[in-house]
Amino acid sequence: AYRRLPLPLLRTRPIGVRPSRPSDLVLLPQLTGAEALRDTGGLPSVVIAHDIGVGDFPGDRGTLDWWGQKSVEASFYGLRRASRVLAVSEFTRRRLLHHLPELEGRVEVVLNGVDPAFLEPGPTPLQARELLQAGLEPGLEGPLVLYVGTELPRKNVGLLLRAFARARRRFPSATLLKVGGAGGAR
Questions:
Q1: pLDDT by residue (tens digit) across 52-109?
Q2: How far apart are CA 162 and CA 160, in angstroms?
Q3: Phi and psi for 141 in degrees, rounded to 5?
Q4: Where are the alpha helices (DSSP H) in the chain?
Q5: For residues 132 and 144, what is the distance between their CA atoms, to the nearest angstrom?
Q6: Which of 40, 113, 161, 170 is the most buried (most CB within 10 A)?
Q7: 82: how many CB neighbours lie within 10 A of its CB?
Q8: Mind giving me the DSSP string for 44-88?
Q9: Distance (Å, rounded) from C-alpha 87 to C-alpha 115?
Q10: CA distance 118 to 81
Q11: Which of 151, 125, 159 is nearest to 53 (CA)?
Q12: Contact 59, 153 (CB under 8 A)
């Protein structure tokens, strides 16, 4: 659990991490909140970095207010206090070390795992389309282009739309389905 100051303006800023029961380790499954690693009560800490768009793409912060931007920056730079950082790809590890070279020797690549549920045979393409059609407006007959993600600038939704426009010239009945929130929402 994060410890916070009881002041209205600062109540969302973590000042430390104190587990509610005896623990051996503080694990942050994403870099959000890493600023709290300045006080872990002496426990070692591990942070999982899925990506560092916050460091590479300042435009991603455009959807945040000033306070939100400062919190994101503090979390990013809070990684310096982590005992270990697990990057989900070699690319993320290299970008972390580019921005925070002091993490050298503390960043390991651990690839994301795959839940066994995804290894089981799924529905046939026809069954999948029928399931999808049941949840969408009627008339989904043609090819389907699926985009899963936000509309952050680095996601290059403009390129997606241009590519889809070209695909529609060849497949006029194609449909673009976007899944995911606008901006930084998930």
A1: 876 777 666 666 677 777 777 888 888 998 999 999 999 999 999 999 999 999 999 9
A2: 6
A3: -110, -40
A4: 53-56, 66-78, 90-99, 125-135, 157-170
A5: 10
A6: 40
A7: 24
A8: -EEEEES--HHHH-GGGGGGS-HHHHHHHHHHHHHGGG-SEEEES
A9: 19
A10: 35
A11: 151
A12: yes
Distance, C-alpha 175 to centroid of its chain: 26
Place of tokens 């070209």: 166
Quickly count: other Cβ atoms within 10 Å of residue 35's Cβ: 23
DSSP 36: G
The type of residue at 41 is G
Tokens representing 7 are: 């002041």
* Percentage of the chain modeled with pLDDT above 70: 81
Block residue for tokens 């089981």: 120
Best CA proximity match to 77, nearest among 40, 43, 102, 58: 102
